[in-house]
Design goal:
Number of domains: 2
Largest sheet: 4 strands, antiparallel
Distance between the termini: 24 Å
Order of helices and strands: EHHHHHEEEEHEEH
Number of strands: 7
Shape: elongated
Number of helices: 7
């Protein structure tokens, strides 16, 4: 939808688990690949390459969710260094054969990949479904809050509304274009929305929508 045609903007804040979609996708792909390998040779051990790739993606995904990478590059440098070491150990095992005794194989089976895929898909599906019933809707004259299926709605006027947008984590922005929006209405409490997807698009839509009312921008280009 073009920013020039919006009449309302929906804001939904998601839990951090939403950033584990790369792990779910990799688990699905590796399950299919391991199934093909097993079909050609049922007695063969699980491929080491697949298991090592899954462990690397798991580590990187956990690292991204655990830390924010906004004000310093220190953790980024650590992440790059650790990834390089893991790649060398897992993917070029001959360099460390004297230490590890050979190729490292976590022996992750097709059953493991499919179980992880199902669990992740179920959790992510529930997160997305729950966001349909918990959201903030900004209109030209009011802010509408819906929480739960049967809960009553809350309405706040947009008069003297101030908005602050920030991108606290560059990796989360890279994965899902996610960032933080804080709504500061003239009446009522401050409304923090820490994980809003497509943050820049939402900001442009809000800018256009509220250009017809009196708004006091606090920080729209944080």
């Amino acid at each position: 939808m073009s920013e020039k045609s919006v009449d309302e903007v929906f804001l939904r804040s998601y839990p951090k688990i939403i950033f584990f979609w790369p792990l779910a996708l990799v688990s699905l792909i590796l399950w299919l690949l391991q199934m093909i390998a097993t079909a050609s040779d049922p007695l063969a051990a699980p491929l080491a390459w697949y298991g090592n790739v899954w462990l690397i993606v798991f580590f990187v995904n956990m690292f991204i969710v655990a830390f924010d990478f906004s004000s310093t590059k220190f953790f980024v440098l650590i992440l790059v260094a650790v990834i390089i070491v893991i790649l060398l150990v897992f993917l070029v095992p001959d360099m460390f054969s004297g230490i590890s005794g050979g190729t490292f194989n976590p022996r992750l089976t097709a059953e493991f990949y499919v179980v992880v895929t199902i669990i992740m898909a179920l959790i992510l599906g529930l997160v997305v479904l729950g966001s349909r019933f918990d959201y903030w809707k900004i209109e030209r004259n009011e802010i509408y809050h819906k929480s739960g299926i049967f809960s009553s709605a809350e309405r706040i006027p947009t008069k003297s509304l101030r908005i602050k947008k920030s991108i606290p984590d560059v990796f989360e922005f890279f994965i899902l274009r996610a960032g933080s929006i804080t709504l500061m209405p003239g009446q009522g409490d401050v409304i923090p929305l820490p994980t809003v997807l497509n943050i820049n698009k939402k900001q442009r839509q809000i800018d256009y929508l509220l250009s017809y009312v009196s708004v006091e921008p606090d920080e729209l280009d944080g």
